[in-house]
Amino acid sequence: MPETVFEVDQSKSMRDQAVPGHNRWHPDIPLATMVRPGSEFRVECREWTDAQLGNNDSANDVRDVDLSVAHMLSGPIGVEGAEPGDLLVVDILDLGPCQGPQEYGDAPGQGWGYTGIFSKQNGGGFLTDEYPDAAKAIWDFHGQVATSRHLPGVRYTGITHPGLFGTAPSAELLARWNRREQALIDRDPDRVPPLALPPLVQSSLGGQATGSLAEQIAREGARTVPARENGGNHDIKNFTRGSRVYYPVHVADAKLSGGDLHFSQGDGEITFCGAIEMGGFIDFGVDLIKGGMETYGVTTNPIFMPGNVEPRYSEFLTFIGISVDADDTNEYLDATLAYKRACLNAVEYLKKFGYTGEQAYLLLGSAPIEGRVSGVVDIPNACCSLYLPTAIFDFDIRPSAAGPAKADRGMSAVAG
Ligand code: ZN
After folding, report:
1. Sign of the alpha-carbon torsion through 74, 247, 372, 157
2. What CATH number did the domain enclosing 193 receive?
3. What range does the domain containing 63 cover?
4. Closest C-alpha to 385, from 377, 398, 373, 376
5. Residue 372 Cα, ligand 1 centroid: separation in angstroms?
6. How confident is the model over 151-180, as pLDDT tens digits?
7. Which of 105, 184, 233, 277 gives a 20 to 30 Å CA spacing to 140?
8. Last residue of a domain, one of 273, 305, 337
9. Is residue 38 assigned to a domain?
10. What's the 71 CA to ligand 1 centre distance in angstroms?
């Protein structure tokens, strides 16, 4: 096991750790530790909300979650010799729940994780117009496999990955983010859910910063929800073990930070907290390509090589969506709408087997489904597809003349 350079005690908030992490992006968050190019090391992580969610049968905690706390990140980790313009090479050597799947406890990642549907009034999700109320599924870990008392009839192998890692932005890049996201918010400032999230002083944590520096980080720091030029919250399920990511370096020492570990996730992470969320550990190897941003033209977003360890499913039932809304409005090559329609088509299908719409939505967010942009040129309809592995069900999910195997399949945790 490599040396642990960022430690987390899962019985404590990130704020109360010996070296606390942070929940905003800012160039001046003080380094938590320093590593050398060529080294391998372990980073421990809290679950992204700092463990506000419990292993219980109520979704009140999802409904009431305080999103100003998110994402609780570990870091920043400085890399010796890194300078703006370099590419930081990050190998994901290993990752998993807290100390492996056998440790049980109250924090997500201690033998269990969860998937949540956020209330439309508090974060929302991809299908928030159709499913506006909070719901939750608790998943139990069995080695690589997840099962849920809230989703009987399903078990699958997780594609374990970090939702969020990235380098620190420069002051200039941070100012650009804040400018352009405010311009987006200004298009419809009262929208629910909001179009974007501006800096927020409430609940800001700037690592070991104190006094006026902590206040400056709280005032200026970018929220961690979107992916940006530093990497950030990609939620790409294929950032699994064996991946190599090339992050642009925008500040001296690169300042690598992250967290939001996922036991599993479907493409799109559609419920917003649609992965199986957990705390745990991640082992990295790092190196540098000096001047690599310009050499390879990687100046806007990271590039990566996917991991080669992932669940092996060979048969899929595939749902198709096109850019035509439920009221028959035709949009022009709108791939987001097309993927949404593919998801809703899958939900309707799964309801025929006895699942509630919320259960189906939670399943599509968390199971290792493949989402594809299939066609974006055949005017006027974009076409997206969603590949659902048939082997994750303990009954036959395929259409047949005999009809669907309908059964009482329980329900997700709901708020109330
Ligand atoms: Zn997540």
Report:
1. negative
2. 2.60.120.580
3. 3-305
4. 373
5. 21
6. 999 999 999 999 999 999 999 999 999 999
7. 233
8. 305
9. yes
10. 8
